Inverse folding.
């Protein structure tokens, strides 16, 4: 359907994309992820023929976007980051114009415009001028513009940016619907969107493609551990002893981190500690930092790796010392339990805590989320990311370095956390 | 062809949805009727000749045309709608031709407005119809080449004001090409043929001179092609 072969684009400033190479099958919904300025828009603009690549070839259905531009472009629907609307036109006249421009046969135009209006919920606004539409409606009109000629390939650049949650849900369900008949490439920097919509993810960073795979697969590929966050009501020392003993007694090596919260709940602290299921990219808070680093160490390590206990020991000690340092906090205890094999210990944990009369307030399975993968891929130097993930080299030297790095980062992360408290 | 018509239809529609063109038309009509009043009514005895007010009309075009063409391409870049046009099956040539066609439509409207004055004149005496229609043809040809220059200026920037000023300066250069070099004879022999208003004098005398017509047409073609190139080049940035 779409083939992007070794495509590069160089701008004057030296930015741009390098050697992008991927292809898409008919009917796929592919998410294109990357931080701002990574080259998502550039790549999409090249696919749609708005920009020509400096090097490489892009074909749609075997037609080169450059050499057979007219034919290739009529197969593509494109929604740029800002919907390309004429504020002075009415919804109706705008859609009619686009239909003509995109070569919809004259006798079908009216029908197609009406179809788009009803499909995208623009009824009753046909006579309204585009200027007076709300942002959500503008986005819908932008989508209508992109699909009015029934393209084979739909390219959407951040289709949900700047919309309120309701509108995001609507647009997403629309895209899902469209994905049934069209091949969709959509860029976003909202990670949930990819999980919610896409069959496949491409992650681009600094102009290079660093990851290509299904959303769940990507998480699994980088994860070989089982982790839960736990919030328990009870005195900290007791929880600590119970959990500590249990973790030690358990055949698996488990990493325990404890953080306490004041009973009245310091609002400033809770989001920082809670970095587990929020989708805020709180890279600066200590919890995700810890996660990421330890994952990095473990991603290539097997469960019986001799280096893992040392790492965990450090983590355990530092966090415990942190916990012990402030005794006035009591009430609830938060812990992150990590087993380095993928065994599910939640039932066991529940029984243990129930037996010791420590009510579980919250128990949450930690997945290596797309967010973690994304952060990992896009915050490291690209070369390292490529080595460790794409090539998947058995680099034993690298690994010990990683482990050492994560040790230091681990303890320093905890210390920073301690100071903050 | 359908796409060219679609684009020029859209442009014409936008012309009459935006206040700028009304403003330009208003200024044009106001100023030219003022000049008509001065030339025809207060200057006695009245001369029944369209050419009397032709010079004023041409001068007004110099001011009005950059205002009318400034948004043609600039606005697309500013609004991001160039992404729609350039990713559509329409080629840049079709896009530019569509826009140019729309600007010619507007020019026609300006001319029709201006025909009010000879109509008034004809009430007071006999008007030479040959010179009238050939003058109108001359103004159209000249206006067409000016519109092309304005279109080109508009494709240079995404800021309408920059486009308008650039268009005005370009037009002024062509306008003054004759008089600027009048001191130096060898230089003026080279430059004068490019003067916009000088070329119209034959037509207003009732003579269709081939080189004059070809000059205006080729000037229009040149600047339309330049606009196409400027826009096409953006794909390679």
């Amino acid at each position: 359907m779409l083939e992007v072969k070794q495509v590069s684009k160089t701008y004057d400033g030296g930015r741009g994309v390098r050697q992008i190479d991927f292809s898409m099958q008919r009917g796929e919904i592919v998410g294109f992820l990357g931080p701002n300025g990574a080259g998502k828009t550039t790549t999409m603009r090249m696919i749609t023929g708005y920009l020509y690549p400096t090097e490489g070839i892009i074909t749609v259905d075997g037609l080169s976007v450059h050499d057979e531009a007219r034919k290739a472009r009529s197969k593509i629907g494109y929604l740029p980051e800002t919907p390309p609307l004429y504020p002075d036109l009415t919804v109706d006249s705008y859609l009619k114009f686009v239909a003509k421009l995109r070569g919809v046969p004259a006798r079908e135009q009216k029908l197609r415009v009406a179809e788009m209006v009803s499909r995208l919920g623009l009824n009753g606004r046909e006579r309204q001028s585009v200027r007076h539409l709300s942002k959500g409606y503008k986005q819908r009109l932008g989508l209508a513009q992109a699909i009015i000629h029934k393209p084979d390939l739909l390219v959407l650049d951040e289709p949900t940016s700047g919309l309120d949650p309701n509108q995001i849900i609507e647009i997403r369900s629309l895209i899902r619907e469209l994905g049934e008949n069209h091949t969709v490439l959509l860029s976003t920097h909202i990670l949930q969107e990819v999980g919610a919509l896409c069959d496949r993810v491409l992650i681009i960073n600094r102009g290079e493609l660093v990851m290509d795979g299904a959303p769940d697969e990507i998480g699994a590929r980088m994860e070989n551990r089982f982790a839960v966050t736990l919030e328990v009501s009870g005195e900290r020392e007791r929880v600590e002893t119970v959990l500590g003993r249990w973790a030690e007694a358990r055949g698996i090596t488990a990493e325990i981190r404890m953080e306490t919260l004041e009973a009245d709940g310091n609002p400033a602290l809770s989001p920082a500690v809670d970095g587990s299921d929020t989708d805020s990219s709180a890279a600066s808070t200590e919890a995700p930092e810890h996660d990421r680093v330890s994952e990095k160490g473990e991603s290539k390590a097997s469960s019986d790796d001799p280096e893992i206990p040392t790492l965990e020991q450090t983590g355990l000690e530092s966090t415990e010392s942190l916990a012990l340092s402030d005794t006035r906090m009591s009430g609830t205890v938060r812990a992150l339990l990590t087993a380095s094999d993928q065994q599910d210990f939640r039932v066991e944990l529940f029984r243990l805590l129930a037996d010791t009369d420590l009510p579980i307030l919250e128990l949450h399975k930690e997945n290596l989320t797309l967010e973690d993968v994304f952060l990992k891929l896009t915050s490291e130097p690209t070369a390292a990311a490529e080595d460790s993930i794409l090539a998947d080299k058995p680099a034993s030297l690298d690994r010990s370095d990683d482990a050492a790095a994560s040790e230091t980062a681990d303890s320093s992360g905890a210390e920073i956390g301690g100071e903050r408290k | 062809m359908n796409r060219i018509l679609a684009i020029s239809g859209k442009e014409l529609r936008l012309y009459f949805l935006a206040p700028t063109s009304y403003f330009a038309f208003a200024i044009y009509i106001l100023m030219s009727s003022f000049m008509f009043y001065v030339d025809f009514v207060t200057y006695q005895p009245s001369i029944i000749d369209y050419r009397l007010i032709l010079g004023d009309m041409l001068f007004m075009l110099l001011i009005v045309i950059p205002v009318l063409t400034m948004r043609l391409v600039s606005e697309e870049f500013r609004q991001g709608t160039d992404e729609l046009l350039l990713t559509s099956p329409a080629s840049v040539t079709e896009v530019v031709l569509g826009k140019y066609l729309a600007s010619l439509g507007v020019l026609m409207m300006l001319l029709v407005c201006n025909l009010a004055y000879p109509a008034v004149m004809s009430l007071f005496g006999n008007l030479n119809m040959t010179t009238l229609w050939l003058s109108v043809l001359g103004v159209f040809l000249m206006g067409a080449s000016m519109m092309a220059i304005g279109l080109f200026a508009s494709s240079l920037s995404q800021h309408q004001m920059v486009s308008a000023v650039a268009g005005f300066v370009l037009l002024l250069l062509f306008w003054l090409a004759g008089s600027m070099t009048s001191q130096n004879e060898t230089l003026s022999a080279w430059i004068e043929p490019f003067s916009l208003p000088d070329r119209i004098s034959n037509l207003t005398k009732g003579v269709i001179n081939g080189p004059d017509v070809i000059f205006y047409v080729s000037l229009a073609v040149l600047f339309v092609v330049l606009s196409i190139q400027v826009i096409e080049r953006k794909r390679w940035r």
In short: Residues 396-420 of chain A form the longest helix (25 residues). Chain A touches chain B through 33 residues (CB under 8 Å).
